[in-house]
Design goal:
Helices cover 0% and strands 54% of the residues. It is built from no helices and 10 strands. It is elongated. This is LTD domain-containing protein.
Amino acid sequence: MVEQVVKTHSLQQQENTDSNRNVRGETQTKTTSQKSSKGNITISECEATGKFIVLANSHSSKEEDISGCKLKQKVEGRGDIVYTIPSGVVLKPKHAVKVSKFNCQQ
């Protein structure tokens, strides 16, 4: 889940995946996420296990300041992982930024 503190952007991602694998036993996996956007910043990619997320500026000519935006990952049974985008981060038109889970604090 992505929480946004800048008024001009609103991001969410939703995707439902159910999978069953039989490899020396049985594993069931269910992944749920949500995706929608208002404005120019979108979630262009979200790695299925939550290792990274890619935010993109879809506008053809306008820069977007995403300083202070918060990315929040919620994992059932664990605490939230929150990452605040540092001051001065501006996405140029048609550019993207990849945020790794390893940069976040739990």
